[in-house]
């Protein structure tokens, strides 16, 4: 099927669940069926299907947050994204409450107010400690009597008016008020609706202090996709409680559109936000949206004309700003690097940041285009405001990275595993029914295999347990080194705390008397964002030890599989029964490696995400006590004396927090090591249990075969087996049809919905490559005639559909040995080979072609990025060429900025059309560093394999 929309994905999930529930009932009906004799297995699979359906319910909606600074044009952007003017577009900040937009047949705003219980609790807390940041909305509420009249209504809110507002809106259990827009096409009615709504959202009126949230329904093609759009207060809002609202919202969303004004600096606000997403593992859901591009470009035009300088095209200005922003985003992690060098953990985070999309927009251009008005500075011909591409990218994220997409992948994967396993059991039982001639002979051979394998299994277990002991000792030794690392991390965190001290102690005493100092608001998040790459590297050191153990385990398991094959051959069991313990062990290894990779990823993510919870209640109480001892610092002598008391407070608090962080990290590190060791200890028994289950199944097959033969039920068995196989296969085929998404053509901003034109190899890029190669190389390439290789490859051997986040797609499975056999030369055409992971993929592919085939030379055509990117990329390619030269492989390359092809041509006549090129895998970590089959597929892509007809 074509690339799906979020709504279609939801429908597909419901359709898949219906199919699975139907086959679940079918399997339960086989519980007492004696013809197949697989009742217990059918019930087990049915129960397993029911369990994962119950665990993975379908989320009600896609949550998309709009985040940014003040004056980034969020409200204007939201209106254009929704296709109707609902949010106020005044120049003053107007988003003082979290506002959600969902689809509805009419335009209506529902304003939810704080319950009286919560409001009174906040007022009580304010009375006890008005300095507490958690009561800031109450503090603001009580300030309104002292404020001047607001600019809009020229109205002053005294105590009496505030009390009237409380009586009107604050009630037990909370209340809500509905505002309706009966005729959305009536401009005057729309203005009145927004004006009425504004009094509850603007910070210039006290009403917003009472508002808990605002929900707006409206007809919208975007919202109709099941999207819940969440407009948040600015991240640099001076009111801390509103910033908290924004930070809470983005913890549980499917996508984040982060708005930043064109030309604005990438400051600490943006850095902190990006680091929080990166630490929480949700950076894939982030899109940087640069707004008001038309405005900054008009400023450039005006300045250039005033200086009598040439005006640069808008595309060039956008490219320049894109490079600036990309560098600033990439540099977000630089100040966190240890000693200026990247650790493996830091490299992983850099790779994730490198994937963040940057989209340039002009909401006013988009509005003018809709109204068919003249546009002075369109961003592109097809998408003058960039908003179409924003929607395109948002739909892509929601269809691949949302909670709903995760449910779809889980359903497809888990159901397929269970049903395919049951199909194998049915086939094994069918083979046994028709092949077992003598029950006693078959049982005797099976028992001899059990005894011989038990000896081999015992030796295997002894070796693995010895390796587990080595692993445990290595992790215990690492704990001593970890203590020093944890101390270093705590010192780095202490520097961050020092920033709070410098800020507080450096304030003027009149500012400090407000009592806001000493609360260190956001400290835990700031510390967590500042140290998480170091903590990840701390855990990585244990993971390296575990990976070493896993490599040994793989070797032992492979040897055990070979032993089992030799036992089968020696006993000549194949004549009566089919014992394939080796295949079962290989399947177990693949499944176990994937599970261990998931375990390591999940444990690391859990520890990293919880870094901002290292302050326990006991520690909070100790800090509160210390703060109380200097609460009356104002007026206690000179400013110098006051500053001295503040520094004494921080000296005490820094010691408390440093110790708390060290204890937290030490406990998490020990816990992480214990989990890895425990998993290692379980592996040998789990492996042997797999073989035991296989042998028990074979014993059951032998008995079933004898019973079928004795009762003359072979034909009945075949019919029942065929019917059940057909039903199971139908569900598997349906899941493939529902969830195998055909990839879009590669797109970039400005080409939304327009396929990239892919030139044939006979065009300029390959011709230029041939001309630039050395004389000796030219002879080899000319003899191969790559144009002819491409032209002759007309027969499609196979098509490989790779789905996002799929695993078990190593180089050997994609580029099968039979397809690359005999290829001594290759030409790779791929415009994107300059990022770290892309160069890693290139090196691994060449090594696969060399080790599995006969590769001696590879010529590459790749894209141009401009300086200094091309220079850095060329240096990396030179280093790779030097490494390959040592193993007898020659590497040549050239760059072509117009090249869009993605294919691999081999001298044996085989051509791989590569879809997304070599950019196949997502980030690598832990076990997947050395095992590509454990890596997750980055995006949906199709690889076609072609060869000559004859």
pLDDT under 50 segments (min length 5)?
508-515, 751-782
SSE class? alpha/beta
Distance between the termini: 31 Å
| Shape estimate | globular
Largest sheet: 9 strands, mixed
Strand tally is 16
Helical coverage, percent range: 55-70%
Widest β-sheet, arrangement of strands: 4-3-5-2-6-1-7-8-9
Number of helices: 29
Nearest-integer average pLDDT: 84
Strand composition percent: 5-15%
Q: Nearest-angstrom radius of gyration? A: 33 Å
Walk me through what this model shows.
The protein has 950 residues and is an alpha/beta fold. 57% of the residues lie in helices and 10% in strands. It contains 29 helices and 16 strands. Helix 1 (6-28) runs parallel beside helix 15 (403-435), helix 15 (403-435) packs parallel to helix 21 and helix 15 (403-435) runs antiparallel to helix 22. The longest helix has 73 residues, at 639-711. Residues 508-515 and 751-782 have low confidence and may be disordered.
């Amino acid at each position: 099927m074509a690339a799906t929309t979020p709504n279609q994905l939801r429908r597909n999930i419901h359709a898949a669940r219906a199919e699975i529930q139907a086959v679940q009932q079918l399997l339960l009906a086989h519980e007492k069926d004696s013809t197949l004799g697989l009742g217990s297995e059918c019930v087990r699979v049915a129960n397993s299907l029911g369990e994962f359906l119950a665990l993975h319910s379908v989320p009600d909606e896609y949550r998309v947050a709009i985040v940014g600074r003040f004056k980034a044009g969020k409200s204007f952007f939201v209106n254009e994204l929704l296709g109707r003017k609902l949010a106020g577009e005044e120049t003053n900040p107007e988003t003082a409450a979290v506002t959600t937009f969902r689809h509805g047949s009419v335009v209506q705003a529902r304003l939810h107010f704080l319950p009286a219980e919560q409001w009174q609790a906040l007022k009580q807390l304010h009375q006890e400690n008005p300095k507490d940041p958690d009561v800031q909305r109450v503090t603001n509420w009580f300030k309104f009597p002292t404020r001047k009249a607001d600019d809009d209504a020229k109205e002053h809110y005294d105590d009496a008016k505030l009390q009237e507002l409380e009586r009107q809106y604050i009630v037990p259990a909370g209340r809500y008020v509905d505002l309706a827009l009966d005729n959305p096409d009536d401009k005057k009615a729309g203005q009145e609706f927004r004006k009425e709504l504004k009094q509850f959202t603007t910070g210039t009126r006290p009403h917003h202090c009472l508002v808990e949230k605002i929900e707006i329904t409206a007809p919208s093609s975007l919202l109709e996709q099941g999207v819940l759009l969440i407009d948040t207060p600015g991240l640099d809002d001076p009111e801390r409680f509103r910033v908290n609202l924004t930070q809470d919202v983005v913890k549980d969303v499917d996508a984040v559109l982060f708005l930043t004004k064109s030309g604005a600096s990438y400051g600490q606000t943006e850095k902190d936000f990006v680091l929080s997403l990166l630490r929480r593992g949700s950076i894939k859901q982030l899109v940087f949206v640069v707004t008001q591009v038309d405005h900054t470009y008009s400023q450039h035009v005006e300045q250039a004309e005033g200086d009598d300088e040439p005006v640069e095209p808008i595309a060039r200005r956008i490219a320049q700003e894109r490079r600036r922003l990309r560098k600033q985003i990439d540099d977000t992690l630089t100040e966190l690097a240890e000693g200026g060098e990247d650790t493996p953990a830091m490299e992983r985070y850099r790779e994730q940041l490198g994937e963040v999309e940057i989209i340039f927009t002009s909401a006013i251009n988009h509005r003018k285009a809709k109204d068919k008005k003249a546009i002075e500075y369109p961003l592109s011909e097809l998408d003058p405001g960039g908003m179409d591409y924003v929607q395109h990218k948002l739909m892509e994220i929601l269809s691949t990275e949302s909670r709903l997409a995760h449910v779809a992948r889980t359903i497809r994967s888990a159901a397929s595993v269970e049903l395919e396993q049951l199909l194998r059991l049915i086939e094994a039982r069918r083979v046994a029914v028709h092949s077992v001639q003598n029950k006693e002979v078959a049982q005797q051979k099976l028992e001899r295999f059990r005894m011989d394998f038990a000896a081999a299994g015992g030796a295997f277990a002894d070796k693995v347990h010895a390796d587990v002991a080595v692993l445990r000792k290595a992790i215990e030794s690492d704990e001593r080194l970890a203590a020093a690392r944890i101390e270093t991390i705590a010192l780095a965190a202490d520097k961050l705390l020092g920033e709070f001290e410098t800020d507080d102690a450096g304030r003027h005493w009149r500012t400090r008397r407000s009592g806001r100092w000493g609360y260190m608001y956001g400290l835990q998040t700031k510390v967590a964002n500042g140290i998480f790459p170091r903590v990840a590297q701390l855990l990585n050191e244990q993971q390296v030890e575990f990976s070493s153990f896993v490599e040994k385990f793989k070797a032992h398991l492979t040897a055990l599989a070979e032993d089992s094959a030799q036992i089968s051959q020696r006993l000549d069991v194949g004549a009566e029964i089919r014992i394939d313990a080796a295949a079962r062990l290989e399947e177990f290894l693949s499944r176990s490696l994937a599970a261990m990779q998931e375990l390591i990823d999940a444990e690391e993510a859990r520890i990293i995400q919880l870094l901002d919870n290292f302050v326990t209640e006991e520690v909070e109480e100790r800090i509160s006590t210390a703060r109380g001892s200097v609460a009356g610092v104002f007026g206690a002598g000179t400013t110098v004396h006051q500053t001295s008391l503040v520094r004494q407070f921080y000296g005490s608090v820094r010691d408390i927090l440093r110790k708390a962080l060290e204890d937290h990290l030490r406990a998490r590190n020990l816990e992480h090591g214990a989990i890895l060791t425990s998993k290692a200890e379980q592996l040998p028994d789990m492996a042997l249990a797999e073989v035991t289950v296989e042998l028990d199944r074979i014993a059951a097959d032998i008995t079933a075969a004898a019973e079928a033969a004795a009762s003359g039920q072979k034909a009945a068995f075949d019919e029942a087996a065929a019917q059940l196989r057909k039903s199971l296969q139908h569900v598997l085929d349906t899941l493939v049809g529902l969830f195998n998404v055909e990839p879009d053509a590669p797109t970039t901003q400005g080409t939304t919905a327009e396929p990239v034109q892919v030139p044939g190899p006979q065009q300029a890029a390959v011709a230029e490559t041939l001309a630039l190669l050395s004389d000796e190389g030219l002879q080899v390439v000319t003899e191969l005639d790559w144009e002819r290789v491409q032209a002759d490859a007309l027969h499609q051997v196979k098509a490989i559909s790779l789905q996002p986040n799929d695993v078990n797609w190593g180089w050997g499975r994609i580029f099968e040995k039979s397809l690359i056999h005999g290829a001594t030369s290759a030409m790779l055409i791929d415009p994107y080979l300059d990022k770290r992971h892309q160069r890693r993929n290139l090196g691994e592919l060449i090594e696969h072609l060399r080790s599995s085939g006969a590769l001696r030379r590879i010529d590459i055509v790749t894209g141009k990025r401009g300086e200094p990117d091309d220079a850095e990329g060329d240096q990396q390619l030179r280093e790779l060429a030097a490494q390959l030269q040592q193993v007898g492989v020659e590497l040549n390359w050239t760059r072509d900025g117009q090249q869009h092809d993605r294919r691999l041509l081999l001298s044996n006549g085989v051509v791989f059309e590569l879809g997304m090129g070599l950019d196949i895998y997502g980030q690598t970590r832990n076990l997947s560093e050395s095992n590509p089959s454990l890596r997750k597929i980055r995006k949906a892509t199709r690889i076609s394999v072609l060869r000559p007809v004859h």
